[in-house]
Amino acid sequence: MSTPSTNESCDRPPDLPSLVASEEAIESSFIAKLQSLKYDYRPDITNRASLEKNFRERFEALNRVHLTDAEFARLLDEIITPDVFIASKTLRSINAFSRDDGTPLNYMLVNLKDWCKNHFEVIKQFRINTDYSHHRYDVILLINGVPVVQVELKTLGVNPRRAMEQIVEYKNDSGNGYTKTLLCFLQLFIVSNRDRTYYFANNNARHFAFNADERFLPVYEFADEGNQKITHLDEFSEQFLKKCDLGRTISRYMVLLAG
Questions:
Q1: What are the tens digits of pLDDT across the range 142-165?
Q2: pLDDT tens, position by position, 27-81
Q3: Would you kindly state where each structural domain of the chain is located, as residue ranges?
Q4: CA proximity to 137, closest of 128, 147, 146
Q5: Cα dist. 221→22, 64, 190 in Å?
Q6: Which of 103, 177, 203, 241 is the right S-S partner for 128, CB 3.0 to 4.6 Å?
Q7: Which residue, among 249, 243, 248, has the nearest Cα to 120 in the 3D structure?
Q8: CATH code for residues 21-259
Q9: Distances in Å between the alpha carbon of 208 and those of 129, 163, 211?
Q10: Beta strands across the sheet bearing 197-201
């Protein structure tokens, strides 16, 4: 269950803790939590080349195929799109690809029959350089090598709204990684300063902005069955990011608006 955040809950000054945990410490603790939930931590995936290499390995294993370098390059050209709606449909569909010899290949990006049986991985401090942008992402969750969740963390005492603004700024940056790389498949954004955690769906840029009234970007806080908000990052992870739970969430449609 989720509840939309109110302006009051998102904007009120936080109670400053006596000991302020650094962003690095929060990040390390978060990754340790994900490892306890059986995510594979991949410190070797730090840039576009290593992300694509890992995706290729997962793709070939899932579809029981070996692609030539030329075929893999053409596959990336076909699936990477600036349209979040199209990327989301590709993620959740059986797709067709013509191999170099003309034979057809019907493929999946993830195991659609059983989302729990995909490979769940976590990477951190990932950097993407494109023609016009140079961005760093705190934590990204991968399902079968496909980036599906971006997590931006802030230091205790810093309003998570700053992380929301950063994501919007990245999305609006010309030639960004969300439109030119595998990051086009991101379905969900999570922002947290450890004590306060919010999430919201990806969308095309013209629907992806918010003002002081949060008019265009619905932001949610997770809640349990009794409608009690779960805002601490550890509890949120335990309830929302278990592998099968996240798989079920992503298997549903996360994009807000088509077109």
A1: 999 999 999 999 998 888 888 988
A2: 999 999 999 999 999 999 999 999 999 999 999 999 999 999 999 999 999 999 9
A3: 21-259
A4: 128
A5: 23, 39, 10
A6: 177
A7: 243
A8: 3.90.1570.50
A9: 22, 14, 11
A10: 2-4, 220-222, 197-201, 188-192, 146-153, 134-143, 120-129, 40-41
